User: Fold diguanylate cyclase from Chitinimonas taiwanensis DSM 18899.
Amino acid sequence: MRPTQLPSLLDRLASLTAIRDTELLEHSLLRTLLPMLGVATCQLYRVNERHEFLRAIRFEREISAQGEDSARITENIERVLHQVDVPEDIQLLIDVVRQNQQPTFQSLGQAVCNVFPLLGGVGINGYLVFESRRPLAQSEETLVRGILSVYRNYAALLEESQRDKLTGLLNRHSLDQNVDKLLTSIVADQLSHNQPDQAQDSAASPRQYYWLGIVDIDHFKQINDNFGHVIGDEVLLLVARLMQRSLRSSDLLYRYGGEEFIVITASSERAAAGEQFERLRHAVGKHRFPQVGQVTVSGGYAQLDGHFSAHEIISRADQALYQAKRAGRNRIFSYAELIEAGVLKEASYGSVELF
Assistant:
């Protein structure tokens, strides 16, 4: 790195550590590295503790001349969730990095493919992949390692702030951020599917819908009253772990507050979402809890729709949960099915009553 680049690097690192959102932090990392290395494109892959791919981000940066003394910079970010397709040659390099826990480099045609591991508290939680015109100099490799170290330390602090202290699940603050981003993404997806040229692609690949469910531990107050709060906390922990095991790697699980949890899952149809919530309910119900015995959960779920706010969607799921409790507990109800059955009436949002 040239001395003249140092102020720019320090400014970018300052911007990096000012971010309070994990996804934006990933974007900022890529924006920091590409100009420093003179790289046009790169990918960031995220994996979970079972090394299943969670998402991928592709970042492109193009510089085009506008005049003698000016240039136009165009940036494009593509984010892929759930079905992450990793090219075979990249997958082979990722396997080498996973085994050695060190970066690896390999010539691919006229370029050099560089793969760096992203390290977290439990080992590798992602990979940074980019192509360069030549092998990295020692100083450039050291620069990348240094920036990734800063990123890792800050990302760990950010991750801790988004986790519930007792269960380790994502917390309510993280829920608010993620649901807002997801609704924005859903609106964009709905608009793109309405375009005529998207009709053929939509038919080829089933459209994914998102569902938000509220899950509540039945009779939790009685557990606390009869066995004490220490056992109550143990029940919360066990329920959280059982639900995590029953969910897919792409699903999101939050502790909403007290004995309530929120699940966000994706599926191409409502029936499949209902089956996912039922698997979760059965996973908890068949487990025998120390001292307590059987513990059950009730839940309600509703579709995430870009026409409604996060508050309105959570309210729908909560109404379905209330009906599940009224019906005897240990069951999961769909808001849409309750509307169709006439049990609930569609709420009218957007009007304001003054009193």
Residues 351-355 have pLDDT under 50 and may be disordered.
